Amino acid sequence: MNKEKSEKFFYEAQRLMPGGVNSPVRAFLSVHDTPFYVKKGKGAYLYDVDGNAYLDYVDSWGAIILGHADDGLINEVKIALEDGTSFGACHPYEIELAKLIADAFPSIELMRLTSSGTEATMSAIRVARGFTGKNGIIKFGGCYHGHVDSLLVKAGSGLVTFGVPDSKGIPEDLARHTYIADFNHIDSVLNIVEENQDIACIILEPVMGNMGVILPENDFLYKLEELCLKKHILLVFDEVITGFRVAFGGVQHLYNITPDITCMGKIIGGGFPIGLYGGKREIMEKVAPLGDIYQAGTLSGNPIAVRAGIYVINYLKSNSQMYELIDKYGDELKNTVLEIARKYGIPYTINSITGMFTGFFSDYHVYDYNSALSADRSLYERFFKLMLEEGIFFAPSPFEASFVTLSHGDNELSKTVTAYERVFKKLS
Ligand SMILES: *Cc1c(COP(=O)(O)O)cnc(C)c1O
Asked: Is-contact 208 214, C-beta < 8 A?
């Protein structure tokens, strides 16, 4: 595979940007490779500057659900552009998007748009703290909520009382308000809550996507909901990936749970920068200018992002059978690939839900942080490179979700299966 032009660009980029990139995973460091440079995307494919095509399972980390450069979306955006790119003032489309979201997510009575998912989660925990008058936050090891100071804290092993900063540059004073619990282990949450009266909220990806896909098991989500109610703790669902992906109404619709605050992003901007947080009226009424919790944004509610989001959500709404199609794609892929893995004796397990899946190189059931970590990373690295040579782009890290769009059809399915067959044979 010729990567000459990409390599030249990457060389140049490294002189100007840290690691050559504007977001760390794009550097391909964890798979010891160099990134390709995208020239364009169309449907399920990316095309690089050297003329290589890749069937895309990264899909802008889940932001793309119709496929790249969707014709209808492009038309809508062209029309929107004619009216101006940013106003810093009210416009009717904000209301249209808010209505669509409130209809799909009944738990969201009042909401605020931001320009990224990070801003949404950052604001959500500020609101949780302001509303409850408490400072503590419980998050789960392996859950990612953007690069917010308080949420970049993970955990060592065992029961950690005080968070240890994951990134330099985060004051210990701040990190110590973040408590780390174990996803799918309700006892780990109960223990923290029992020892601390100061918990404002529990924030989680209700279906994990950032440790690879990990589904909530047994009554985990219900028990969290129950606990929050009993202890006056706010339940914050980070549905930045899952909103409008796993179902039109997100994880909360699938599991019939009513979080106090929900964060969204990615899909709701149709590939433009966006974020959203919202929830119960009495909570969100504390946000300025109604209340005294301040949060603002020059580009919040940007008309292009908003009109792109409206287009995508309306499309999904009027084509609800699409969820069945992407679900069927995922199921067929999973069943066939697991068969291939068995045939070649590759330790492989796939976690999936509508529109997203992760294949872990593991013989074990992956249901929490530790079982995910036990997957074989060097096998993944070889898999990633061989797949790329087959023209298939999976995430350049073993602990990420792969995404299916409406542009992934029968051809893409058989192309993927053929590539798995060839790659697993080489790995065996
Ligand atoms: C991507 C992501 C974020 C952060 O969104 P950005 O737009 O990258 O700031 C937050 N939470 C989850 C679950 C995400 O996947």
From this structure: yes
